[in-house]
Amino acid sequence: MPSTLGYDGLTQMLHGAADAIRDNHTTLSQLDSVGGDGDHGATMMRAMTRVEAAIKSCETPTVKALLYDVGWAILGVDGGATGPLFGALFMAMSEAVGEAEALDAPLLAHLFEAGLEGVARNTRAQPGDKTMIDALTPAVEAMRAAADAGADVVEMLRRAASAAHDGAASTATMQARFGRAKNIKEQSIGHPDPGATSTALLFQGFQKGIEKHA
Ligand code: ADP
Ligand code: MG
User: Fold this and answer.
1) 96 C-alpha to center of ligand 2: Å?
2) Containing domain of residue 33, as a range?
3) Which of 56, 145, 156, 189 has an alpha carbon 20 to 30 Å from 107's alpha carbon atom?
4) 40 C-alpha vs ligand 2 centroid, how far in Å?
5) Which of 21, 129, 137, 178 maximizes ligand 1 atoms within 8 Å of its Cβ, making it the mutation to test the pocket?
6) Digitized pLDDT (tens) for each residue of the chain, 214 residues in all
7) Which is the closest atom of ligand 1 to the Cα of 83?
């Protein structure tokens, strides 16, 4: 495995994410039916179908164009909170990447930090509010810590997946303060947040997608 990630590596990460969502969409919708409208799995499936179509039709084979097309594809998913938030993640990464085509660990961490900032510009939810932020924030922090410790991109994505998983699991004890689930107040306690769970699946898929080709 080379020490940097390029266009092809990125497509492998994204295909891995699509596979992870595809394998778990029923669980995501079940989780969303606790306090939401039960559509999260279906919405994520539509998002991933659009992502895979965007990869296929990406006309300029640059990392920036790929991230932009993927972000744009997700933004175009109708149905609630998911499209704007996950779309913002990839759009902000595309803005941050500049002309770089070989992403090493520090640059990949930087891109995800920019992505998290992009999401944060679209919501006031903070860690602890039982949203996707509770998985995304620790994943991005783990990436930065891994980069600072000299880890390569594969090890970095492994740590990010683990942190996202733990972050998603931790939402089970939280009360929802954003999204539809806030309406059921303390009844939201006891189940993990669907958006945090799908975020953990995306990172698990990023890792698996890369490892499959490593
Ligand atoms: P909707 O709630 O509009 O049907 P989804 O079911 O696709 O959208 O997604 C629900 C998930 O989106 C929640 O579990 C939560 O993680 C996330 N979410 C919803 N609203 C917000 C928000 N304001 N800020 C951050 N995340 C949110
Ligand atoms: Mg929903």
Assistant:
1) 30
2) 4-213
3) 56
4) 5
5) 178
6) 568 999 999 999 999 999 999 999 999 999 999 999 999 999 999 999 999 999 999 889 999 999 999 999 999 998 789 999 999 999 999 999 999 999 999 999 999 999 999 999 999 999 999 999 999 999 999 999 999 999 999 999 999 999 999 999 999 999 999 999 999 999 999 999 999 999 999 999 999 999 987 6
7) 7
Q: The dihedral of CA 3, 63, 70, 15: what is its sign?
A: negative
Residue type, 88: A
pLDDT at 2: 63
Ligand 1 binding pocket (C-beta < 6 A) is 32, 36-37, 39-40, 43, 80-82, 85, 123, 125, 131-133, 178-180, 193-196
Q: Report the half-sphere exposure of 191 (CA within 13 A, side-chain side).
A: 20
CA atoms of 145 and 112, how far apart (whole Å): 13
Q: What is the pTM of this model?
A: 0.97
Quick one: which ligand is closest to 77's CA? Answer: 1
Domain count, the chain: 1
Chain segment 43-101, per-residue pLDDT in tens: 999 999 999 999 999 889 999 999 999 999 999 998 789 999 999 999 999 999 999 99
CATH number of 182's domain: 1.25.40.340
| Residue 50 to residue 71: CA distance in whole angstroms | 10
Nearest ligand (C-alpha, residue 180): 1
Q: How far apart are CA 140 and CA 33, in angstroms?
A: 28
**If DSSP codes are grouped into helix, strand and coil, which group holds residue 136?**
helix
